[in-house]
Amino acid sequence: MFFAVTVGDWLGEVENWVFAVLAIAMVYAAIRVVTTKNVVHAALFLVIALGGSAAIFLLLGAEFVAWTVVMVYIGAVIVLFLFGIMITRAPLGYETKLSHPRRVRIGAALASGALFLLIGGAMLDAFGDDPVPAAIDPTRTSDIGQSIFERFVIPFEVVSFVLLAALIGGIVIARQDPTVEEEEVLQ
């Protein structure tokens, strides 16, 4: 039996209410990411969806993963998206030519729904109603931090400089002023 918990038991837990609110906000934001016509708004809705996933990780007690999502995805990737949008002088208004026809959107929605059902069914088949075993000795955040910054501090810093060089290179390439010939072609 897959559903041993009744609806009343589920509704009696405060964590489930918090999860439901977060899940509804995340689903709305995810739908708006792919349906909005303004690319800046899409990036900001992605921030909401990623913030919700970080909050769910906090509910699960995985604070290191939650703050990693906040720092890496929200703090770095989204900021990089917004920098890319601003630097490349992408049109910030509504673009109607980016939308696919309705038949393509319906097909994509059906394919994603079928994939969701397939993965969900496979998970229920594999795990059923077996309880999740409690961790005997969980890995603490301080242990992960010591591992990264004691043993791998030099590769960590090298990667940060490589990413900084890539960001500066992208800015230089994107912000090059057009030559006289290119200006004549554009006019």
Can you offer a commentary on this structure?
The protein has helices at residues 7-11, 14-35, 39-59, 63-87, 102-127, 141-151, 153-174, 180-186. With 187 residues, the chain is an all-alpha fold. It has two domains: 1-96, NADH-ubiquinone/plastoquinone oxidoreductase chain 6, subunit NuoJ (Four Helix Bundle (Hemerythrin (Met), subunit A)), CATH 1.20.120; 140-187. Helix 2 (14-35) runs antiparallel to helix 3 and helix 3 (39-59) runs antiparallel to helix 4 (63-87). The longest helix is centred in the middle third of the chain and has 26 residues, at 102-127. The radius of gyration is 23 Å and the shape is flat. The model has no long low-confidence stretch (mean pLDDT 80).
Which SSEs are present, and which pair or pack?
Layout: H1 7-11, H2 14-35, H3 39-59, H4 63-87, H5 102-127, H6 141-151, H7 153-174, H8 180-186
Helix pairs in contact: 2-3, 3-4
Report the span from N to C terminus: 70 Å
Name given to the CATH architecture of the largest domain: Up-down Bundle
CATH topology of the largest domain: Four Helix Bundle (Hemerythrin (Met), subunit A)
Count the strands? 0
Taking all Cα atoms into account, the compactness measure Rg is 23 Å
Question: What's the level 1 CATH class of the largest domain?
Answer: Mainly Alpha
What does the overall shape look like?
A: flat
The total number of structural domains is 2
Chain-averaged pLDDT? 80
Order of helices and strands: HHHHHHHH
Class based on secondary structure composition and strand pairing: mainly alpha
Low-confidence stretches: none
Roughly what fraction of the amino acids lie in strands?
under 5%
